[in-house]
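Example S7 (structure tokens).
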């Protein structure tokens, strides 16, 4: 069994760090581990390699704890992270920070407390600002630097803390914080055994003069199937209060009497997303042609460009392609450039794919993103994930298709912090690593993508008619210089523009001026 592990830390530093594996601790590649770093800090690291080569010249620190029973990263992800780091010239630690949801990155928080043995060497040794910080810490008992900054409004609190540490006026401690919380709901159960009829009769004797509590008992007996031979059902707090038509205060009174206890049970966040989907929308003749051509193109090309004009119905074509991939038992990544677009698409996709659709973006809470991560990690079921560029880091196991909609959009490019990656290009590489096909969609393709499609490196499918044979808008260019010479301008606007706007308003239509 290997005695050492190379651990990747979520820091902007090159390489990994070697830690000793505690005797009897089973650690594997992809596991999250809690490790000390520096003098006092504690970080969540990810094991990238195991070996028996002991480093020379320094004492190797030991892994404090393994955080997961199973790895939270698969080998293809580590390979993808390596590619991101190499291609975009950043450290693996920076990729780690960008890739993993915050809820999976357990870190220690620094707390400051007053040293009870501290005495000023001489009156006035502490400045007014230092005394304010010391008094604030004394009142709270233990505070963070961010709390001090917020309460005092001081700048460079870190400098004050450093000086007070040198004076031995304060102490610094670390506390490990795990922010992930699974979704739960409150449930209610009796405090007695199911066969304890004596205690049950005693409960009803207690509530003879409390009709609302009696209604609560009767509602619980019904919902839990207590008196039946069937399996005992869990009863949620909300269902019980609704059935009994009483308030939470009535339940609390019954709990105080020892009749009920309230407990939490974990809830699947995806359970209510609909499991009876509708069929994908029917395709027009032009959409059907594009759908067939895409299938032909994917037999010869790993990457295909769908050049479809605005309102041509590219999304409907995507839906049919997604349905095909899911039917084969594979997974789909559907990238959009902005969060706003995911909300518009979600309603359409949810009707077709039901609980097979997952949404992943920064507007979701850390807990929700961790649950999506864990679901993909623990299952190989066919799923479609719609998300923004960060979704390329999710732990897919059977990726069959990657769709990048509006592939030309600059929002796919991450500027700061590192890694400064292009989500479209990263998605193409991700698809290649999984042996999946990539489909790029746009009404105005990026010039480099369009060139590769025309050159035959990418497949090219065109969808140049609007859905429902709606005519393209007529574009008319007005030479305002000539119009001004003819005295047909009203300020910044040509008379032609004013006439067209007036006609539209007269017909009860709307006008947008950019």
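Recovered sequence:
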């Amino acid at each position: 069994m290997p005695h050492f592990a190379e651990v990747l830390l979520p820091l902007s530093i090159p390489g990994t760090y070697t830690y000793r594996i505690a005797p009897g601790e089973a650690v594997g590649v992809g596991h999250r581990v809690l490790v000390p770093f520096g003098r006092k800090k504690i970080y969540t690291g990810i094991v990238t390699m195991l070996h028996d080569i002991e480093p020379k010249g320094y004492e190797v620190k030991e892994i404090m704890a393994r955080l997961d029973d199973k790895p939270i990263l698969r080998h293809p992800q580590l390979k993808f992270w390596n590619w991101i780091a190499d291609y975009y010239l950043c450290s693996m630690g920076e990729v780690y920070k960008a890739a993993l949801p915050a809820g999976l990155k357990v870190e220690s928080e620094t707390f400051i407390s007053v040293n009870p043995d501290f005495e000023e060497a001489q009156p006035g040794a502490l400045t007014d600002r230092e005394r304010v910080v010391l008094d604030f810490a004394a009142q709270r008992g233990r505070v963070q630097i961010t709390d001090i900054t917020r309460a005092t409004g001081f700048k460079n609190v870190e400098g004050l803390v450093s000086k007070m540490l040198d004076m031995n006026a304060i102490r610094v401690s670390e506390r490990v914080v795990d922010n992930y919380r699974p979704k739960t709901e409150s449930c209610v159960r009796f405090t007695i055994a199911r066969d304890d009829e004596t205690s049950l009769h005693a409960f009803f004797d207690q509530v003879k003069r409390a009709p609302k509590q009696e209604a609560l008992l009767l509602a619980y007996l019904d919902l839990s199937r207590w008196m039946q031979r069937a399996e005992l059902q869990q009863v949620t707090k909300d269902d019980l209060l609704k059935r009994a038509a009483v308030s939470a205060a009535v339940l609390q009174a019954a709990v105080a009497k020892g009749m009920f206890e309230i407990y939490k049970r974990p809830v699947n966040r995806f359970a209510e997303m609909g499991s009876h989907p509708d069929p994908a929308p029917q395709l027009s003749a032009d959409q059907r042609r594009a759908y067939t051509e895409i299938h032909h193109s994917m037999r010869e090309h790993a990457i295909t460009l769908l050049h479809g004009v605005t309102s041509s119905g590219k999304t409907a074509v995507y839906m049919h392609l997604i349905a095909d991939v899911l039917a084969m038992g594979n997974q789909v990544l559907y990238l959009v450039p902005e969060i706003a677009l995911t909300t518009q698409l979600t309603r359409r996709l949810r009707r077709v794919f039901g609980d097979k659709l997952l949404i992943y973006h920064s507007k979701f809470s850390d807990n929700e993103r961790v649950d999506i991560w864990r679901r993909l990690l623990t299952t190989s079921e066919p799923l479609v994930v719609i998300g923004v560029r960060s979704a390329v880091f999710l732990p897919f196991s059977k990726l069959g298709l990657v769709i990048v909609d509006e592939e030309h959009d600059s929002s796919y490019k991450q500027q700061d912090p590192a890694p400064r990656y292009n989500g479209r290009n990263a998605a193409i590489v991700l698809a290649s690593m999984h042996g999946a096909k990539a489909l790029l969609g746009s009404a105005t393709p990026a010039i480099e993508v369009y060139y590769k499609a025309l050159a035959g490196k990418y497949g090219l499918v065109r969808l140049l008619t609007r859905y429902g044979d709606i005519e393209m808008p007529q574009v008319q260019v007005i030479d305002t210089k000539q119009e001004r010479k003819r005295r047909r301008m009203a300020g910044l606007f040509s008379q032609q523009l004013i006439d067209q706007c007036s006609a539209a308003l007269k017909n009860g239509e709307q006008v947008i001026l950019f």
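Notes on this example. The chain has a mean pLDDT of 88.
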